[in-house]
Amino acid sequence: MDISHHYIEKGEGFPLILLHGNGEDCSYFEHQIEPFARHFHVIAIDTRGHGKTPRGDAPFTIRQFADDLLAFMNEHSIVKAHILGFSDGGNIAMVFALAHPERVEKLILNGANLDASGVKRAVQIPIEIGYRIARLFAKRNPKARLNAEMLGLMVNDPNVKPDELSQIQCPTLVIAGNNDMIKDAHTRLIAKSITNAKLAIIPGNHFIANKNPDTFNETVLRFLLNDSK
Question: What is the pTM of this model?
């Protein structure tokens, strides 16, 4: 492991790991950490190259971030955890659950997507244009290079096929806003492709955990505390 993750932890009990989205940090979950910590040992992590976690030299990909998560869990002696991921964090959680099913007790995918086709075109087109522009200047401009890496996550990753999701056997909640930037049909495809996954569409946009925390928290806790560890 070539980096040391910055993280916030609170509470006691079974571990609940929170993974933020692209270009954010663990403070995204400011409305979740306290309520969830009443029931779980909450650990909110800054992903590689985000927040206070260094970039390091490894590839800047969703699969690398999943490898980082495994290293983090091993380093902190976390044998198994509930994992809640938002947006790119949801993609990390999804890839991690596929690669390391024995390490996930319950999985919550919030605003995740299988590939770029799952994002509404009005949102995705500017991302793709920005990515192309940033790549043009990446070799001679460090800021453009970082921008290209961040946008590249939303253009090139995570590339998971729907039929792969049948390998996820742990209890799973797929949750999104009713006005999410992820296409509704795509969110429903993810839920349908995971064995016995629960689907929750709640009022709000992509950022429901931040903008509609009461409904989001209630939905997540109901799922986690139902016959939970």
Answer: 0.97
